[in-house]
Design a protein that fits this description.
Elements (H helix, E strand, L loop, with lengths): L7 E7 L16 E7 L8 E6 L4 E8 L1
Antiparallel strand pairs: 1-2, 1-4, 3-4
Bound molecules: zinc ion (ZN).
Length: about 60
């Protein structure tokens, strides 16, 4: 016991490309893989990053 100190988990951050129906870019969704400490960040993570599909900085949100 006590070995599982840092409960870091791998998460996927996804752009909202998929929600923009105006843009015909079905070939991809901006995604990043990251990790977080479940204990420190129990809520969903949101990071501003550059999305090559949106061609701009957008908020990437953690998905399940
Ligand atoms: Zn995007």
């Amino acid at each position: 016991m006590g070995k599982n100190k840092g409960s870091r988990i791998i998460i996927t951050l996804e752009c909202e490309c998929k929600n923009s129906k105006d843009i015909k870019r079905t070939n991809g969704i901006g995604r990043y893989t990251s990790s977080k400490n479940k204990r420190n960040t129990p809520s969903r993570l949101e990071i501003k990053k550059f999305c090559k599909y949106c061609n701009q900085h957008v908020t990437f949100k953690e998905i399940k």
